[in-house]
């Protein structure tokens, strides 16, 4: 049942991305082009998502546990360290260059554009590269 609801959640997310037009990297890039063809639709999509998410969290936190887990799995660290800031900066730079974030790129695979596949291959490669480098990074940090 847990996997069914995970698939349904992904379907709802992908449908929202498609309806809002956020599968088109030009819409995202135009949001960042303040001096040119500035498009505010991304701000409205994110604002709508923020409102729905905040309402959802208010309902979810009233429960003792999630529907399909024994307990909530929350991050324990509140530190703003170099990994967090660097990762956020890298994500933002990649988003600004490509016009895609991984969440929007996955439903955009259905468009058949080679750029989307290249982006997702690059992101996946970055995940695996990070895993390979993780032991070496941990040694240099100590």
Automatic annotation (TrEMBL):
<feature type="transmembrane region" description="Helical">
    <location>
        <begin position="42"/>
        <end position="61"/>
    </location>
</feature>
<dbReference type="Pfam" id="PF20398">
    <property type="entry name" value="DUF6691"/>
</dbReference>
<feature type="transmembrane region" description="Helical">
    <location>
        <begin position="112"/>
        <end position="129"/>
    </location>
</feature>
<protein>
    <submittedName>
        <fullName>Membrane protein</fullName>
    </submittedName>
</protein>
<dbReference type="InterPro" id="IPR046513">
    <property type="entry name" value="DUF6691"/>
</dbReference>
<keyword id="KW-0812">Transmembrane</keyword>
<keyword id="KW-1133">Transmembrane helix</keyword>
<feature type="transmembrane region" description="Helical">
    <location>
        <begin position="82"/>
        <end position="106"/>
    </location>
</feature>
<keyword id="KW-0472">Membrane</keyword>
